[in-house]
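for the recovery benchmark. tokens below, seq after
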């Protein structure tokens, strides 16, 4: 049996976990603990990771090793489950990338951490702004035959598909995916309220990085952001890296979606030496990495994903919300509930545990130890 101790996020009192056979077998509160003891919490869960460190889910030459490198790099930041995210490309490239993720799950740690696959595209807006840095030449309407090819290549791992509901065939695509246990997310869209509502009626239930992948200027009202904010059947992912959303916007969106479901994502991309030296990203082409960590497409100025993980997102959200407990909840419990409907912070849950240090003003939380299914990975 393994015993882990730290400070409870809500009360600050001591919290002791007992772990056996990879599961939490007991939780005990109220023990005395030092005021500088690490916080203890469920591991972070990221539902949108294009790549991280040297690992890239969108590599030109897809491989299982890319995903395994992602898993290990994310574990060092406190992430215990994640969805490798495949973005818009040719049919052949997207299927190969999905297959590489499925192959990677032969590695035990990768299999424990990969909670599924998120496909972002190719049925997104073709307009500048909402399209972001997704390649225009590969934007296309949804095709049920292509969706079936993803389901086959994913070997049961396809969990989320992001699309724009303006395309013809959207309702059929959403219905098909939902029938196969895949959640559909609205994102990178210029769809009107009627089109978004039709997709939700068909079963769409998420918003992808709400407030981003949008026009620089919008009508005051109505517009597709207001529609998604108001739609109670849509839970929303938001990027809290300090670049994608201003603090006031992030705070307002979290408040608006609190009863519908809101969660933090990183939208992280791989940052191998070639990106830093040559400014070329597999998810955005020619990019520039600023000193403050913002990654922008050189030609358009649009953000090309983030180079920050959820350790920074949690710290930023904690400062904005004035609550470390709320910030961690948005990056752990809420996405876990969306994935499988179960609270990860309870007796009987898989022992994905993060112990970390943080105090107000810190730019990131600092993991002290990270356990995946009871096994220490950091």
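predicted aa per position
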């Amino acid at each position: 049996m393994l015993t882990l101790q730290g400070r409870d996020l809500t009360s600050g009192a001591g919290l002791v976990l007992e772990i056996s056979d990879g599961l939490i077998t007991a939780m005990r509160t109220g023990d005395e603990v030092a005021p500088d003891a690490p916080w203890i919490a469920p591991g972070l869960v990221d539902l949108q990771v294009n790549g991280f460190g040297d690992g890239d889910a969108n590599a030109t030459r897809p491989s299982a090793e890319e995903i395994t490198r992602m898993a290990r790099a994310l574990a060092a930041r406190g992430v215990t489950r994640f969805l490798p995210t495949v973005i818009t490309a040719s049919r052949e490239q997207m299927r190969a990338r999905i297959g590489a993720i499925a192959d990677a799950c032969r590695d035990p740690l990768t299999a424990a951490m990969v909670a599924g696959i998120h496909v972002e595209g190719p049925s997104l807006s073709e307009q500048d702004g909402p399209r972001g840095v997704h390649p225009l030449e590969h934007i296309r309407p949804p095709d049920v035959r292509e969706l079936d090819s993803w389901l086959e290549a994913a070997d049961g791992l396809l969990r989320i598909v992001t699309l724009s509901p303006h395309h013809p065939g959207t309702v059929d695509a959403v219905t098909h995916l939902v029938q196969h246990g895949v959640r559909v997310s609205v994102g990178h869209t210029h769809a009107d309220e009627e089109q978004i509502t039709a997709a939700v009626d068909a079963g769409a239930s998420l918003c992808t990085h709400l407030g981003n992948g949008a026009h620089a200027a919008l009508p005051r009202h109505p517009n597709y952001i207001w529609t998604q904010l108001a739609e109670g059947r849509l839970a929303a992912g938001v990027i809290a890296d300090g670049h994608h959303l201003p603090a006031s916007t992030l705070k307002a969106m979290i408040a608006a979606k609190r009863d519908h479901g809101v969660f933090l994502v990183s939208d992280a991309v791989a940052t191998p030496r070639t990106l830093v030296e040559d400014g070329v990203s597999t998810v955005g082409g020619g990019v520039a990495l600023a000193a403050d960590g913002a990654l922008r497409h050189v030609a358009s100025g649009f953000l090309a994903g983030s180079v920050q993980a959820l350790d920074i997102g949690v710290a930023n959200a904690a400062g904005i919300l004035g609550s470390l407990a709320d910030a961690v909840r948005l990056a752990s419990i809420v996405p876990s509930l969306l994935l499988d409907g179960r609270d990860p912070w309870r007796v009987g849950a898989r022992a994905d545990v993060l112990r970390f240090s943080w105090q107000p003003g810190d730019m990131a939380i600092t993991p002290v130890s990270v356990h995946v299914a009871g096994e220490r990975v950091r």
